[in-house]
Amino acid sequence: MTGPAPASASDWSVAVDRDQCIGSGICVVYAPDFFTHDDEAKATVIGETGDADLSAVRTAVEACPTGALALLVADTKAADTNAADRKEA
Ligand code: SF4
C-alpha cells in the first residue's frame, strides 16, 4: 500500500477499530514502541507520533490481518500553499 506521505510527525495518527481487532499481535511485533495490547487483548496506541518510526507503524498497519488499523494523514495542502506563498513574498 502506498499512501500520502505525512509532511511531519504531527500530520498523522493511527485509529484502531476495536471491533475489527482480533488481538493477533502483528502490529505489536512490527511497531512495539507504538502499539501494545490492552487487558482485553485489543491493540491500543501507546506511542507518540513525534517519536514513532513511521515506517514501522505503516508496516504494522499494512500487516494487520483484519484491517483494524488506519493510518490517518492530515491534508496539508493549505499549509503547503501558505509556505509557498511566504517564499514568494
Ligand atoms: S495486527 Fe490488527 S488484529 Fe492484530 S492486534 Fe494489531 S490491530 Fe489487532
UniProtKB/TrEMBL annotation:
<keyword id="KW-0408">Iron</keyword>
<dbReference type="InterPro" id="IPR017896">
    <property type="entry name" value="4Fe4S_Fe-S-bd"/>
</dbReference>
<dbReference type="Pfam" id="PF13459">
    <property type="entry name" value="Fer4_15"/>
</dbReference>
<keyword id="KW-0003">3Fe-4S</keyword>
<comment type="function">
    <text>Ferredoxins are iron-sulfur proteins that transfer electrons in a wide variety of metabolic reactions.</text>
</comment>
<keyword id="KW-0249">Electron transport</keyword>
<dbReference type="GO" id="GO:0051538">
    <property type="term" value="F:3 iron, 4 sulfur cluster binding"/>
</dbReference>
<dbReference type="InterPro" id="IPR001080">
    <property type="entry name" value="3Fe4S_ferredoxin"/>
</dbReference>
<dbReference type="GO" id="GO:0005506">
    <property type="term" value="F:iron ion binding"/>
</dbReference>
<keyword id="KW-0479">Metal-binding</keyword>
<feature type="domain" description="4Fe-4S ferredoxin-type">
    <location>
        <begin position="12"/>
        <end position="40"/>
    </location>
</feature>
<keyword id="KW-0411">Iron-sulfur</keyword>
<dbReference type="GO" id="GO:0009055">
    <property type="term" value="F:electron transfer activity"/>
</dbReference>
<protein>
    <recommendedName>
        <fullName>Ferredoxin</fullName>
    </recommendedName>
</protein>
<dbReference type="InterPro" id="IPR051269">
    <property type="entry name" value="Fe-S_cluster_ET"/>
</dbReference>
<keyword id="KW-0813">Transport</keyword>
